[in-house]
Amino acid sequence: AIQLTQSPSSLSASVGDRVTITCRASQGISSALAWYQQKPGKAPKLLIYDASSLESGVPSRFSGSGSGTDFTLTISSLQPEDFATYYCQQFNSYLSFGGGTKVEIK
Amino acid sequence: EVQLVESGGGLVQPGGSLKLSCAASGFTFSGSAMHWVRQASGKGLEWVGRIRSKANSYATAYAASVKGRFTISRDDSKNTAYLQMNSLKTEDTAVYYCTRHPSGWGQGTLVTVSS
Q1: C-alpha angle A62/A65/A70, rounded to 5°?
Q2: Do A96 and B102 touch (CB under 8 A)?
Q3: Neighboring chain B residues of A55 at a CB cutoff of 8 Å
Q4: B75 in helix, strand or coil?
């Protein structure tokens, strides 16, 4: 099974900060990676698919990059509604998820 | 708009069984693979398994943690996917989501395994 390692597991940031979350796959997955945002009590929401394609309706401050084994989610200017937990997901072989990154208010 | 509605969750004793349903609308269900994902309270997301379409022989795959105990099926005439859970353990306690990858998630249904 393909393992995904996300870092950091949590971070504190202020509104307006640039935030970067990384995801490393245990083997190459090409660009078969998605990023999700989850708020308490809610289902995950798709932000990015195919590593760098922005889902329709998602603000352009979210961006994704990478291929192979190393991937990054960047929030260019953190907004109050962005405080949530973020997960990477690979879909090269079945599905698997990273452990999550909780973004908290500083 | 993709809509997925899970049902069938509840409290069950260890060793018991439960069958979850996922009613779909807003997309061509018969042509779509459907996945089940679970999340224990305060924990991350865990893929449970998936079923592919008729064109892909309804092929199923499962996470190691549930293989041999859980079975995924579908009824394309009812636009519904199912998750049959047998020999339930306390560690199966979680919110169970069905999802049509990559977007389209249900609201989840809570399964509690406890005596």
Answers
A1: 130
A2: no
A3: 103
A4: strand
Search chain B and give the residue with CA nearest A93: B61
Query: Is the CB of A99 less than 8 angstroms away from the CB of B50?
Result: no
- pLDDT tens per residue, range A36-77: 999 999 999 999 999 999 999 999 999 999 999 999 999 999
The whole-number pLDDT of residue B103 equals: 86
Query: Cβ B101–A95 below 8 Å, yes or no?
Result: yes
- Give the pLDDT band (50/70/90) at residue B83: very high
Best of A39, A56, A95 to mutate (most B CBs within 10 Å, chain B): A95
Closest CA to A24 of A82, A101, A103, A105: A101
**Predicted confidence (pLDDT) at residue B27 exceeds the cutoff of 90:** yes
φ and ψ at B90, to 5 degrees? Answer: -60, -30
Torsion of CA B45, A40, A100, A29, to 10 degrees: 50
What is the dihedral sign for C-alpha A81, A101, B113, A46?
positive
Q: Considering CB atoms only, which of A46, A49, A97 is closest to B44?
A: A97
Q: Which two tokens stand for residue A59?
A: 């603000």
DSSP structural state of residue B103: S
